[in-house]
Every structure is written in structure tokens, then in C-alpha cells.
Amino acid sequence: xxxxxxxxxxxxxxxxxxxxxxxxxxxxxxxxxxxxxxxxxxxxxxxxxxxxxxxxxxxxxxxxxxxxxxxxxxxxxxxxxxxxxxxxxxxxxxxxxxxxxxxxxxxxxxxxxxxxxxxxxxxxxxxxxxxxxxxxxxxxxxxxxxxxxxxxxxxxxxxxxxxxxxxxxxxxxxxxxxxxxxxxxxxxxxxxxxxxxxxxxxxxxxxxxxxxxxxxxxxxxxxxxxxxxxxxxxxxxxxxxxxxxxxxxxxxxxxxxxxxxxxxxxxxxxxxxxxxxxxxxxxxxxxxxxxxxxxxxxxxxxxxxxxxxxxxxxxxxxxxxxxxxxxxxxxxxxxxxxxxxxxxxxxxxxxxxxxx
Length: 356
Known about the structure:
It is built from 12 helices and 4 strands, in the order αααααββαααααβααβ. The chain is globular and about 70 Å long. The protein is mainly alpha-helical. The strands form 2 sheets. It has a two-stranded antiparallel ribbon with strand order 1-2. A two-stranded antiparallel sheet has the order 3-4. The longest helix has 39 residues, at 231-269. It has helices at residues 7-29, 31-38, 46-73, 80-113, 117-144, 160-184, 191-222, 231-269, 274-277, 286-289, 314-319, 323-330, and strands spanning 146-147, 153-155, 301-310, 344-353.
């Protein structure tokens, strides 16, 4: 006797398979950047630790979701207790990913506002309120949701509405705080901090829009505006993938920006690149030969040049070697030994008055 496949379970399996494939492609595409930028800073920054934990735990969890979705599609029966455990796992996973994303964004807000105690207090309030709302309603979601024998959600609990509202409000607060700093400091910041602000605002805007769209769809399905059984079964998978992508992009974009700034600073401090940054027209020497180009000295003053020789031993020369000394020795290294570069001649100009 042929077994009919539940269309809801079939759609869940298709969706989870597609999302898992996208996550694997994302992981492979940015693996080189992860090894080069994130892993060396794993023990140094909170962002790197959050990235690594969520990256691999989230990917493993999504693979497990695909396996469970195939169980539902093939009609494998589960006990009510197993379905509640499955629902608890979903709520815990989403809450951990939400806290990871919110923590990353809150860290950026704290960097923008430095020691602003008001913003810090508000971030604690919104983050704590969202976590408390999720913890309180998690029990209601697990016990109040009705499942089929294969753990397909038949009717979700109405408390999803309150959870989604608290999450959207928290992300909106972060976005408004960033936009306030971004538009309120247009003229007072240099190019690099301005670019960092723009990057943070862009990432936060994309995350907030994506999460808002998911929860608005869930609200419409909960209130029966959109009458579909898929709402209570796909929200978890969409949120998991969205938050997993969000954590990865936030950390990778910040690390790529930091590496770019470090490379630019390295070019500035590299003497070999100074000739590329400074252009001087050596053929234009008319201003130096023109006596009218510079003011003349008073007639009562004379300039007396005194040559002073300051020998340095080899040890001190190695420790206090200047860039100019390297270029002075560079032109004479073929015709004179290196020790001849140690004495340095200086011209000291002394202005002596006419009476003295």
C-alpha cells in the first residue's frame, strides 16, 4: 500500500534543503576570508568568538533540520513528548541566534557612542526585555502548539505575536541609534569612521528589514489574514537561516574593513611607497635661483657656516638609524665601506650681528 506524502512536510523539506544549500555555499565562499581574518582573532575579540560558535553550530543545526524534515515527509511517527522537545530545540536555537546578532549590533552601538550611559542603559533595557519576553513565551509556544503525529505544526500559539513584536522593537532601537549617530555627525568625523558608520548602518538596515518581513508574515498568518498552515512550520527555518547569515556578514564585513584600514596605514608608513605618494617637479628650479623669490637678509647680518663632525659608533648607529641615513649610505655603498657612513656632517648657521 502506497503511503501519501503530507504536502506541508514536503514543502518544509524542499525549503530546508534549499536554505541548507545556500548556507553551505555561503560558508565555502567566505571560508578563505574566515581563515585569514577571523581565526587569528578568535582569542582576542568577542566578535570572532560569536562568529565561530554560531557559524558551525548553526550549520550543524540546519543539517539536522533537513534530516528531521525528511522524517516528517516520509511519515515517521513521533510521540507528543518528542514533538515538544523538537519545538523546545527550535525556540532555544532562535533565541541563541537572536542574542548573538543583538550582541554584535549592541557592541557597534557602544563603539559609536563611546561612554554614553543613556544609550548603554537603553540597550540593556531593550535587550533584557526581548530576552525576558522570549523566555516567558517559550513555554507557551511549546505547550500551546498543536502537532500532528509527525511533528508538523497544525496550529501555532498566539503568543508568537508578542515574541515577534519584542524582537522587531529591539532591532528598530539599534537601527534608530545608528541612524542618529550617522546623520548627526556628518561634518565632525573623518573619512574612515564615516565609512565604518555607513557599513554598520547598511548591515543593520538589511537585517532589520529581513526580520520584520518574516514576522509580519507570521502575524498575518496568526491572525488568519493569510490562511495557510505553512506559517507555523517555516518561520523557524527562515529565522535560523536569516540570523545565521546576519552573524556571518556583520563580523566578516567589519574584519574586512579593519584589514583594509591596516593595509592603508601600512602603505603610509612604508618608505618604499613614499615616492608614489609625493610628486616633485625637479626640473622647476627657477624659484630657487631667483633672488627675488625669498626675502633678503638684513645688511648687518652675516652667515657663518661651521662644520661639525659627530662620530657614532656602530652599536648606536644600528639603534638610531634614520631613514635619511639609509638614503645617504645608499649612494656611496659601492665606493666606500659602511663605516664611512657613520660620521655625519651638519652645517650650523650662526647669524652674527654687525656690531658683534
